[in-house]
Amino acid sequence: WPGQYGVDIEPATVARLAKDGYIQGIKDSHIDIDHTAEIIRLTEGKITIWTGFETKILPALCLGADGAVCTIGNIIPKEVVEIYNLFQESKIKEAGEKQLSIFGLVNALSSRHDMQPLKEGIKMLGYDVGDALMPTTEVSPEIKGKIREELRKLGKLE
């Protein structure tokens, strides 16, 4: 993830690699949707492009991306697929509503820069994914509460 690790591939580089046949696709996890848009524009449909950012599924699809590979799909896969399917059916308003409905959970899971909040959410759904391993730490009760609240809003918990 460019924002976390400080490594980015410029859209022009992606386009050159695509043109020369070195890549067939890319998962773009850049926080700036303009970055994804520029990759889409420069590669001219020659490669498969997925967004890796939960909050940009619908915007990326509208710009010409092929889909999404994002963390939240591990905890609410049906909702991610529904955004995609609604877009494919040209039900943009409904896709937008579904996209907006996941923002609260995205924010709760993004409250730390590790996977532990995601693991906590998955545990809340009844799956044993183990405890935090060093160097990560357990999620605070406050963050757990936010995750639980957002899962309830989405109808995943009672």
From TrEMBL:
CDD domains: DHDPS-like. One of its GO terms (molecular function) is 4-hydroxy-tetrahydrodipicolinate synthase activity. Keywords: Lyase. This is Dihydrodipicolinate synthase. It comes from marine sediment metagenome.
